[in-house]
Amino acid sequence: MLHLLTLSSLGRDLFNIKMLIVILITIGLITLMTILTYLLEQQVHRRQNRYWTIGAHGAEALSVLISMILLRQIFITLNSGSIISWTYATVQLTILLFSLNTMRNLAVEIINLLMPLFIYGQAIWLGHSTQYLPVFLAMAIILISTVVYITHNYQELHATQWKYLLFQILYSGTWWGVIWSVHPFKLSHTLVIILAFVLYMWLIRLAVNRVQKFFNEVLTFDQQVNYDELTGIRNRASFDTHAREVFAAYQHHQMGPVTMVMFDIDHFKAFNDQYGHLAGDAVLRHVAHFVELELNQRSTHGQIFRYGGEEFVIIFRGISALEAGQIMRTIQRKLKTVPIKFNVQTLNVTVSIGISELQPTDQTFTDWFVRVDDYLYQSKQAGRDQTTVESQLLTD
After folding, report:
1. What residue spans define the domains of the chain?
2. pLDDT per residue as tens digits for the range 348-395
3. 236-393 classified as CATH 3.10.450.50
4. Peptide bond into 134 cis (omega under 30)
5. What are the GGDEF domain coordinates in residue numbering (predicted)?
């Protein structure tokens, strides 16, 4: 009879109106975490900068900790100051496993690895017995191994449904073993708790899959509209929108400096004529990726666009024409030392560059653009592989 009453209490804790509120809040938090993760990972992919990657992964880990703290405060409010609840533990584990599956970075893995030690240490500090220390050690070792496996075999687990479910059960089962070592409960409850956890994760996964599908559609549309299919950088349409917005903002707020760089690939037609259009495509991709990577590594905040054919444009905010010239001249020289391998051929690539800063006297965007185009023409007339800044040819 007592056993049935205890199970009834467990049922009331896991399945009541407070639980519904917590489920909705948890789904909301995880949706926000998913959005944050997608936005940050998109930037990581585009920037390919080590410091940006570290910062993005740190922000993702911070969102996990903030979500767990918020859930703790919500439970304290709903339960008159108490957090001793099956539902509380279940949703916290849901946040941890979600982050492990979705974010998949070292910072989040470390949080999952340290959390069992934190829970046990906190319980001992509050005066709980160390009687079941061997149980904690055994469960912690299994849990840590599970976390490491999930982190490094994510694709395999998601490709096989039964493996995904098995590791969900293993993760939750060992976590409940850790909790049992400081808060002993009837082991017969474990199956009910694991079932509730799997149910939570099913609801969360359903919500996250819908959010991910929406984001994939949005990102695919954005990619098709704003990015060049061949090189992967922003296209002419994106440049037209971005550049005119910058020009309008400058006119209204006199922010500055703002500098435009235009460059094209020297003797590009010769690559197509001599080696074929596939070689020309390879050269375009090489130059676009090389310059974009150099800009990101130098933290210049320069945005590169493919304007058309072999022509590219960069918009620098907060950088003067002379500073942009020095940056681009360095990239220009470095590009010469990194030839492209195409089939058995080694193709040396150079570019010609024109640079001008937006001026208060520019009445229209076209005034600025034409001036930059003229400076690019001066570089080509000077023998190519040159940089012209405000009508002055840069010399090494």
Report:
1. 2-226, 236-393
2. 999 999 999 998 888 888 999 999 999 999 999 999 999 999 999 887
3. no
4. no
5. 256-392
